Structures are given as C-alpha cells and as structure tokens.
Amino acid sequence: MEHVDGNALAGPLAEFFSFDVTMAVAKCEGCGSIAELARAMVYASDAGTVVRCGSCGQVLMTLVESEDRAWIRFTGMGAIEVARTSAAG
Amino acid sequence: MSFITRGFSGRSRERDERLPPGQTLVHDFPVLSAGPTPDIDTADWEFTIRTESGSQSWNWDEFMALEIDEVSTDIHCVTHWSKLGTSWRGVSIDTLFEHVETGYDYVMAHSYGGYTTNVPLDELRGGKAWVAFEFDGEPLEPEHGGPARLLVPHLYFWKSAKWVRGLEMMPTDEPGFWEQNGYHLHGDPWKEERYW
Predict the structure, then answer these.
(1) pLDDT tens across B151-171, in order?
(2) How many structural domains are present in chain B?
(3) Residue B64, domain extent
(4) Residue B84 forms part of a structural domain
(5) For residue B178, which residues of chain A lie inside 8 Å, CB to CB?
(6) A58: closest chain B residue by CA
(7) Which residue ranges make up each domain of chain A?
(8) Deepest of B12, B80, B115, B179, by most Cβ within 10 A of its Cβ?
C-alpha cells in the first residue's frame, strides 16, 4: 500500500483534538480499567502535571510546560475514545 | 574596574554569583512531586545497587553503619528556585561503590513509588553525590524524600530522586521519568539544561 506524508493528518486529527479532554475515555495499561480522564488523579506541580489511573495509580499521561514549549506524553494509556462531534455530517 | 562601572549599571545590587542563570533565591523549601508521598518505615527500607553481574543491598541499620558525610551545598530546582548553603547528612556514592564493581558507565536511580532518573556514574562519584537521610539536623521529612533521597547538588534537583531505593547500572544513558517527558537528559543548572 502506498503511503502519504503527515500533512494528511490535518483533517482527521483536527476533529480528534477538538474534543473535551475530560470526557475522553482511556484504558489504563497497568490495571486495564477503562474510565473517563475526569476520574483520574492529577498531581500538578511547577515541574509538570502527572495524571495517574484512578484505580491503580499508574501514570497515564504527563504534561510539561516551559515558557515557550509544552510536552505531552501518553505514557500508560492505550487507545483514547472520544465522542464524535460531526457524526451527522 | 568594578567600582567605576557599578555606579552606571543602574542595578541596586550585585547578582549573587552562587546563583546559576535564571534562578531565584528562596528561603523556604518548595515541594515538587510526581505522585503520592510513599510511607516507608526504615524497618522496611532497603537500598540496592544492581550491576551486570549481581546486586548489593543494605538495610537501614547496615546503611547507618557506613561512613556518614556532612554535606553543605547549594541546590537548584529546574522550576527556577535555588537554596544556598543547605545542610545534609548522608552516605557518599563513593562509599557505596567500594562494595560494587561494574563496567557500565550509566545509572538509573529508582525510587519507592516508581520514579526514576538517569545520571552518568562519573557524575555520582568523586564526592559529587550522596544518599542523604538528614536535612538541617533532622531526619528527612517524607515530603522531601525521607527516609532517604539521592543528593546530586551539581545537577538540577529533579536528579536528586526522593524516596530512593536503589541504583541500576546501565551500559547506555537511558532517560528517566522526567527526562522522557520533556526535561533534559543531563540537567546542568550552570548551562541551563532544563528541557530537550
């Protein structure tokens, strides 16, 4: 199969990244529990934000921010489930 | 000559030369953490160095029987605060490695709670790093890493892993927790090695 370059992601990812992140559902790769991110435990400090599974405490994601850059890493979660906003489109 | 230029500089005071670039002096001791504070009884505490050929462990009493250093040092957090002249007691990494042989050059520090951070071995040896269990004359508080934390004061303080439980020797430099998530692999405050 032929591939295209990453510019082809602009359409599908624009929809994906417009969701309400707290309503997104993720599966913890540690204990397997599936839950909304809003149920996770968030440890926020000046060093960064660490999101841990509400069931087992494993790190699900991290967010680090500097003055001009930010890093997000989905460390311990599998696929992320979001509600489609353009289902009728 | 400095006494001539000082009057024209417009600065009300000289910058403290002990402060690396981008740092501000604090007098309290801010707490930064990536998770819950582990509750570790010294009766359950153990410190292990793992190498390519085996491991060496100390329990709390064995660790307290090692040579203990008094350390006075400045510390620098990547979140822009520095604290000058802090007082610690702990065991030098040099003392620990009198009992350990390894051909590997890199270390991953592991903590209770799962935190990790990477440091080259030659930046832990030579009087540069300790496993510290007292701060300011008192047992190290759990929120500051007690019962024991790594103390690597010449690097940003995230390298001084709280609740440290061991060192794992590695053949190559692998990133630890914050180093995988945006922070610098090395972390020299004098070079402002804060992020990738």
Answers:
(1) 999 999 999 999 999 999 999
(2) 1
(3) 21-32+40-49+56-191
(4) yes
(5) 47-48, 64
(6) B114
(7) 6-81
(8) B115
